[in-house]
């Protein structure tokens, strides 16, 4: 590896990288939290069918991620880097497709609305890959310093938190009138967030610099064979894929079901704004704690402990079914705070896994490895989308009525508490017993990789 003589890494890069996820999450959060209720209550599509759409689309997106990641790795870096130009090129069609998802043409048939939902949602997801894969891969070339990469992970989490504040706080106030979803107001929200998203993407492209340039692998085969062998042997990657997939199932399920929890169980959609603000606020509280806690205990240790504590809070909520909305939100805030540590360090996990892949294979394939990781998250989203829609149907949710039955409301509460608790417990078990890169082993990996790189340079002289 070599470092170009360019502007030193600094706060400008951290803020620029933060803006990238800020831009991503305007639509990602809007879609993950509110698209299902838009499809059920505005388009009139059943929750089970929407769940099927989400499953098909996410599985397609997972394939698109890997395809695009491999494509990126076959491109040579230009004067503006390897990844930044793709963010610039593809962000405009991505945002346009996001706005199109929320266009509602009155008076059309049920078949039209279903077809329109499938086409626009799958188009948006495909274009999302063309921006998110280069964005996520870019972290490993902005700086080669493991400590600074951890700071990039934290600033990425900060960008998501800022988007979360705006989207989760403003969207319920915009799109609901008297607790009822209004199609034209969803479109207004999409246009507002689309403009903000483009501005953030441009800030990301302008403020970041790609510094780490991988040498050409002249002696290695560039085909997929060696890559696949390395991926199969990469135990940290496999454990990270499994834990991230499981975590995404829980996170997306929470986001999907919470809308119905507050709309139907608590009859208080305005409370969704409070939850949205708290979800981002806990990130601001947790962020300054990440670096000292990671330095003392390690990334794996911090993330797994936070996940376990979060699971405990959701189990507690499950056994408090008569709780009122404010105490529920307070306890939920503690659960969000604890699992936020996983969200803040997971991108640093990814750079460690990319390094481990290089250690095993001698190949630096940031886009491919990151896309494999993104693949797992998309599969998690697919499972969550399918489970969310089917589970709502199973507990008796009826989109055609304003008031749900008592049994349905109890089922929604169970989906919002017990199920996330079980999912988070599973994530804890995977991290604890299968992910091998503890604090000491991560430090040793950095040393071993540096020695291998130097040995390769010496051999080529």
TrEMBL record:
One of its GO terms (molecular function) is symporter activity. Pfam families: MFS_2. One of its GO terms (cellular component) is plasma membrane. The keyword Nucleotidyltransferase does not apply. The chain crosses the membrane at residues 21-39, 45-66, 86-105, 111-131, 158-177, 183-204, 237-262, 268-290, 302-320, 326-350, 382-400, 412-435. It comes from the Bacteria. InterPro entries: MFS_2, MFS_trans_sf, Na/Gal_symport. Keywords: Membrane, Transmembrane, Transmembrane helix. This is MFS transporter. The lineage of its organism: Bacteria, Bacillati, Bacillota, Bacilli, Bacillales. PANTHER family: MAJOR FACILITATOR SUPERFAMILY (MFS) PROFILE DOMAIN-CONTAINING PROTEIN, MAJOR FACILITATOR SUPERFAMILY DOMAIN-CONTAINING PROTEIN. GO terms for biological process: carbohydrate transport; sodium ion transport.
């Amino acid at each position: 590896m070599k470092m170009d003589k360019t502007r030193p890494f600094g706060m400008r890069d951290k803020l620029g990288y933060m803006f990238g996820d800020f831009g991503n999450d305007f639509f990602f959060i809007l879609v993950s939290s509110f698209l299902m209720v838009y499809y059920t209550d505005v388009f009139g599509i059943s929750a089970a069918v929407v769940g099927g759409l989400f499953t098909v689309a996410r599985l397609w997106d997972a394939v698109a991620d890997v395809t695009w990641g491999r494509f990126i790795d076959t491109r040579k870096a230009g004067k503006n880097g390897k990844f930044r130009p793709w963010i610039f090129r593809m962000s405009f069609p991505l945002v346009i497709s996001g706005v199109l998802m929320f266009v509602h043409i009155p008076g059309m048939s049920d078949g039209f609305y279903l077809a329109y939902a499938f086409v626009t949602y799958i188009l948006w997801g495909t274009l999302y890959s063309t921006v998110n894969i280069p964005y996520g891969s870019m972290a490993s070339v902005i700086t080669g310093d493991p400590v600074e990469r951890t700071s990039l992970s934290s600033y990425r989490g900060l960008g998501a938190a800022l988007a979360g504040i705006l989207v989760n706080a403003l969207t319920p106030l915009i799109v609901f009138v008297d607790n009822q979803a209004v199609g034209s107001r969803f479109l207004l929200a999409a246009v507002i967030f689309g403009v903000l998203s483009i501005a953030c993407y441009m800030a990301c492209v302008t403020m970041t610099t790609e510094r780490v340039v991988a040498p050409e692998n002249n002696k290695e085969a560039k085909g997929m064979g060696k890559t696949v062998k390395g991926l199969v042997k990469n135990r940290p990657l496999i454990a990270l894929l499994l834990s991230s997939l499981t975590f995404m199932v829980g996170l997306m399920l929470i986001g999907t079901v919470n809308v119905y929890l507050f709309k139907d169980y608590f009859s208080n959609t305005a409370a969704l704004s409070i939850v949205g603000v708290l979800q981002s606020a806990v990130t601001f509280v947790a962020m300054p704690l990440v670096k000292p806690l990671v330095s003392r205990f390690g990334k794996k240790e911090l993330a797994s402990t936070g996940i376990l504590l979060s699971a405990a809070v959701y189990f507690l909520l499950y056994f408090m079914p008569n709780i009122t909305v404010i105490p529920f939100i307070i306890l939920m805030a503690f659960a969000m705070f604890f699992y936020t540590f996983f969200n803040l360090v997971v991108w640093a996990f990814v750079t460690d896994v990319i390094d481990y892949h290089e250690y095993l294979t001698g190949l630096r394939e940031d886009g491919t490895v990151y896309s494999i990781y993104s693949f797992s998250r998309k599969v998690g989203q697919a499972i969550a989308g399918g489970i969310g829609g089917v589970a709502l149907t199973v507990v008796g949710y009826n989109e055609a009525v304003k008031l749900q039955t008592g049994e349905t409301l109890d089922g929604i509460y169970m989906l919002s508490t017990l199920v996330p608790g079980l999912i988070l417990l599973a994530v804890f078990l995977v991290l604890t017993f299968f992910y091998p890169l503890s604090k000491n082993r991560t430090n040793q990996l950095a040393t071993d990789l540096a020695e291998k790189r130097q040995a390769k340079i010496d051999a080529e002289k």
